[in-house]
């Protein structure tokens, strides 16, 4: 059973930075991975994703501010978030997929809160 565990969320002032990490366990496969976020009362939206080979996909609102990366040997994915804005405040979820996709949805972490104060 694949398990994903996020870390790195928290409270930061606008303009600041946070780095989210997600560790995958329970599989020998190299998964496609990514990050989604969810605002209260809204559906989850893709923030960024990265395939096994390193192809990336970003939602427009974070391009130039967020960077997704991965360490296949450690089965980890990271989201470096710079120039954070109050509208980035949300619960961020790590996701992974058996298929080599830029929209992973097979497996989910429990989520980590990111709060950006103005």
Describe this structure in words.
It is a single chain. The chain has strands at residues 3-7, 10-13, 18-25, 32-38, 45-50, 56-58, 66-71, 76-81, 90-97, 107-108, 112-117. With 118 residues, the chain is mainly beta. It is built from no helices and eleven strands. The mean pLDDT is 96. Helix content is 0%, strand content 52%. It starts with a strand and ends with a strand.
Q: Which term fits the overall shape?
A: globular
Q: Order of SSEs, N→C?
A: EEEEEEEEEEE
Strand percentage, roughly?
Answer: over 45%
What is the alpha-carbon Rg in Å? 13 Å
Low-confidence stretches: none
The count of strands amounts to 11
The termini sit apart by 40 Å
Query: Mean of the pLDDT scores?
Result: 96
- What structural class is derived from the secondary structure elements? mainly beta
Largest sheet: 7 strands, mixed
Number of distinct helices:
0
What is the share of helical residues?
under 10%
């Amino acid at each position: 059973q694949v398990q994903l565990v996020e870390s790195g969320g928290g409270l930061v002032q606008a303009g600041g930075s946070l780095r989210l990490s997600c560790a995958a366990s329970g599989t020998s496969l190299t998964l496609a991975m990514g990050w989604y976020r969810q605002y209260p009362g809204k559906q989850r939206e893709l923030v960024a994703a990265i395939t096994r080979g390193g192809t990336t996909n970003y939602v427009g609102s974070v391009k130039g501010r967020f960077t997704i990366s991965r360490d296949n040997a450690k089965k980890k994915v990271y989201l470096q978030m710079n120039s954070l804005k109050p509208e980035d405040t949300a619960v961020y979820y790590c996701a992974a997929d058996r298929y080599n996709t830029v929209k992973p949805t097979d497996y989910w972490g429990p989520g980590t809160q990111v709060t950006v104060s103005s």
